[in-house]
Design goal:
It contains 5 helices and 32 strands. The protein has 471 residues and is mainly β. It folds into 6 domains: 38 residues; 72 residues, Immunoglobulin-like; 78 residues, Sandwich (Immunoglobulin-like); 72 residues, Immunoglobulin-like, CATH 2.60.40; 74 residues, Immunoglobulin-like (Sandwich); 108 residues, endopeptidase domain like (from Nostoc punctiforme) (endopeptidase fold (from Nostoc punctiforme)), CATH 3.90.1720.
Amino acid sequence: MKTDIQTKLKTLFDEKIKNRKAMFIPIAGVAAFMLVGYAGVDHEKPEIVSSHIQIPYGEKFDTDAIDVVDNHDSRSELLVEADDDSLDVKQLGTYQVEVRATDQFNNTDVKTIQVDVVDEEAPKLKMLGANDGYYIEVPVYGSQDLSSYIKAVDNVDGDVTPFIESDKQLDTSKQGTQTINVSVSDNSGNTTEEAFKFFIADMQAPEITLKSGSDITVDYGSEFKWQDYVSISDNLDTNIEPKVEETIDTKQLNQQKEMTIIATDGAGNSSKVTLNATVKDITGPNIVLSTNKVSVDKGSNVDLKSYIASAVDNLDGDMKDKISFNTIDTSTTGVKTVTYTGVDSAGNKSEVQLQVEVTFSGERIVNTGLSKTGCPYVWGSTGPNSFDCSGFTQWVYRQNGIYIPRTSSEQKAAAKKVVSLSELEVGDILWRSGHVGIYIGNGQYVHAPHTGDVVKVSSGVGKFTCGLRYQ
């Protein structure tokens, strides 16, 4: 700037003095004035007062925040520049920034100052979802985690929801209003506190589950029951009775109806499903037996039809005479199964079973033996009018369809079960070495004793060793 003034003075002197000598005296006065003005030029540089400043995270660095003073110029007239290449306002921390301040006379001050990028903004709390009113709506038995309803976001740390703290836990098992004081802090210690009001209520509609799809078949002549086609459950209410729109006449074969089932809980929450119903004959005859288990004697004749009490079809009516069944063999003991089958005109089939237990009757054995009392004992005889002991037992058992060996020792060897005297049943053979008889109960037995005697009833089974059983 000094060089510029000197140049201007020389130019002025040449023009006014050399070229225009007549004006020497005035021009000399002007030159003297300019020399005095030059002596008053500002030579003092500005002063950068600030040594340490702070700027909020993310904000642009503004040199207006730097305090600079000058002996002549105002702050707004000063040129303040900063080398902020190393400064990152998106990263908290301390930075060194070189600042240059220049006044209007080109005097310059340079200083390195400390710049701290700081976070002074607290996290923000906001409601999630559609909760934009005064209350946060929470379903009863819903999540008790506050993060399901409130989110905390910080300008620096981002999502700080996991660090939310509260003065009490949210209890979603109780309907009504709850106020919970919530606070959250960021890593810089900035804290936000806010009271949230929660409204816990039943907002869940009943759940209707289709048991076999929406296309259903209703049996001809039956009563329509929604329970056969859907199940209903609710988070709070039990035994919800739904409303069934439309009715269906199950006496109209092939009738079709669209039926809507609406389930509403105590809080007024509703759900519905639609069933496409068609009436058809899908059930076979209802076969009813007078009993499901009988016991018959071995070899006896059994009237199996007599056990059919009724057989009625929902469409075809009485079908008792159209029920078929298999036969059984009563010549052997055991449990036999009789299956009764009915098929209606629509081809629907139904079956029921009768268990027939074919047993060996000890009473019949006894009665056969007693029928021969008085017949003489004849050694080696096997009946029908005279007997020795083992010939008598063999003959009696044979009359009842059971074949046993001839001698007493062979009869013991052929027994399916040898029982103690305390286990005796009517019809068992009593055995001891050399003699056999038939137990008739109450400590008595019928037998062919010995030569000179007859078939008779005797007492004292203790004379025998064991009992023999063949069934």
